[in-house]
Amino acid sequence: MKNGKIDELRRGVLVFLGLAILTVLEYYLGTHEAAAIFLWIVGLLKAALVVIYFMHIGRVFRSEGEH
Amino acid sequence: MATHEATLTTYKQKLANNRLGLWLFILSDSFVFAALLVTRFYLLGDKRPHLEQQLGLVVTSVLLISSFFANRAEVQISQGNRRGFLTSIFITMLLGIAFLVGVVGFEWRLAPFGPADGAEGAVFFMMTGMHAFHVLTGVIFLFIVFRNGLKGHYSPERHWAVEAAANYWHFVDVVWIFFYPALYLIGTL
Asked: Which residues are paired to B47 by β-bridges?
């Protein structure tokens, strides 16, 4: 249990790093007049990371709740 | 002891319902933001408002970092690290306030148009205003959780309010993930 929680902290850092890299990429694409589709793809990837790993959407489908 | 086990089981059953309720609220609220996003492209098309690019990147980064600390707060209370939880919640609140100052205090003032200056102004102030209102309510929510945390209301087994506040905060972040490129990056000046 303890190891699992420590991994969660590490996962939080990795997800944050992923979000930071995608944001820099997004800024680069936006300021270099890339096609809008690429910005939407980056946005969707960022949103997916937050919804899956920070908001834990999977928890809502469990029949019994546990933190 | 048996009573404690029974109440914990009831709590876990309630927790599943609470989570479903929160997600239904988030889903309904996301329709408001989706409508604003559609409005931006319907009214402005391929044209984007003239905004401070660097400021946009800074406030976006501030909100992303705040989401990291919101997640950290939730993990730390589930570990029983009360001090770490309180610190993380406090940092999240401060970053939320910094975001508000960046958008409402600076971006609104620096924008070369007002809310009544055509579609550009209406879209920009409506989108950022509605989002800033949600950030403000999120900061209030985090403050309540922080105050209750100081009183020792949460434990590793019972911290639904912390989870709810963090999830609401992440939702506000997800909205900005789409608003940021729509306002600052997509289209031409």
From this structure: B188
Selected for mutation to probe chain B from A27, A31, A37 (highest B CB count within 10 Å) is A27
From chain A, the residues in CB contact with B187 under 8 A are 36
Query: Which of A5, A30, A53 is nearest residue B79 as measured by Cβ atoms?
Result: A5
**Is the CB of residue B95 less than 8 Å away from at least one CB of chain A?**
no
Q: Measure A2 CA to nearest chain B CA, in Å.
A: 7
Q: What Rg do the C-alpha atoms of chain B give, in angstroms? A: 19
Alpha-carbon distance of B109 to B55, in angstroms, equals: 12
**pTM, entire model:** 0.93
DSSP code string of B28-39: HHHHHHHHHHHH
Quick: pLDDT tens for B110-161. 999 999 999 999 999 999 999 999 999 999 999 999 999 999 999 999 999 9
**Are residues A57 and B23, on separate chains, in Cβ contact within 8 Å?**
yes
Tell me the H-state helices in A1-67: 2-31, 36-49
> How many CA atoms lie less than 13 Å away from B96 in the CB half-sphere?
30
Model ipTM over 0.85: yes
